[in-house]
Amino acid sequence: MQRSEQITQVKVLLARLDSGTNVDAGGMRLNPTTSYTDTDIARMERETFFRNHPQVLGLSGDLPEPGTFITINDLDVRILATRDESGEFHAFVNACRHRGVAVEERGSGKAQRFTCPFHSWTYDSQGSLVGLPKEDHFGSIDKECFGLVELPSEEKYGFLFANPNPSGSLDIDALLGSELSEEMEAWDFGSLRRLGGDRYEIDCNWKLAMDTFGETYHFNSLHKNTLAAVFEGNVQCYDTYGQHHRMILCRKAIHEMRKLPEDQWDITIAGLPVYWLFPNTILLPNDLGMYLVRTYPDEGSPGRHTSVITFYMHSTGDRGENSAEATPGRRTQIQLAPTEALKEIAQGFAEIIRDEDYVASASQQRSAEGGALPNVVFGRNEPALHHYHNTYRSALGQDPLPLI
């Protein structure tokens, strides 16, 4: 985030703390519980949002050097992402062109070649078919025409983007918009390195998982023994960027920061920025690095989903005293704590999501499936939920939820 924007947002948080006010959506909205249970809606979402829409596969740090790869198996189309020997990022359908068997089953690693276990057809990191056994017996084949199917992909602002539809389009700046693109670039996410991650299969709709990141109204209740010790509940900043949005949660550390000169303010100490990238990605940049959360619907049931949470950290020295984004005179925690300690911090955060937020989300799902509750209510202080769901509805050709 640009320095001037950090100062502006810290001032907004302080003003809301001092006045006892919060962001205001101007009214309430009623969201039908069928949004979380209807199989036809789930089918449309899967087709629109997860088969034909660009996806965040990870960050540049997931492919830290030439010859590295990752696989993504949470979409209908299995994806193999590689960094070739010249350092270029590629995304392919993870399926051999002979009979469709996945050419790589590992989640990540290093490889110059990918060999199908069925008949040993072999591909390089640029997706080219470079070998097949007994070619004279199999038949003459033009190898240039039978490489791995490449997907539209781009590495930009530290993200690995790909469209799961080989015939689909991908324009990152058009996807994000100019203002959000500039903000993503300012964060320098490309310098982060992967620290670890976790994945949870939860009995709730994927949108209910997204909803839990959409307000801080619940902090003093659901998180009273965890996050409420660090964050001010029911205080936030909120801005939209087309289909996307940015919240900034308020840390209690802001009370000490306000005593410092403005040139020593840091938004990752005063608050926690939370970005939603349509349709299923949450970014939580912080002074240690970033948490990336992606939610994927279950193929068989609207009432289940998988959350994939990945942790990234700043490389040693990246945010030291000479960094323009660092607080002057302050070394960040990342430089003081061992990697394993930081991994424990990140894992603890993920487990709060699993053991508190997603437990509540599963309870919501059960109520929705009971059929006796026709709607849930999005309050005036929950604008992200208004924006989430009207954005989803618009993309599906549905009428917006009216403001009450």
What report would you give on this structure?
The chain is an alpha+beta fold and 404 residues long. The chain has 2 domains: 267 residues, Naphthalene 1,2-dioxygenase Alpha Subunit, Chain A, domain 1 (Alpha-Beta Complex); 115 residues, Rieske Iron-sulfur Protein (3-layer Sandwich). 29% of the residues lie in helices and 27% in strands. The protein has a 7-stranded antiparallel sheet with strand order 12-18-17-16-15-14-13, sandwiched between helices. The chain has a 4-stranded antiparallel sheet with strand order 5-4-3-6, with no helix packed on it. Strands 2-11-10 form a 3-stranded antiparallel sheet, with no helix packed on it. The chain is globular, with a radius of gyration of 22 Å. The chain starts with a helix and ends in a 9-residue tail after the last helix. The relative contact order is 0.17.
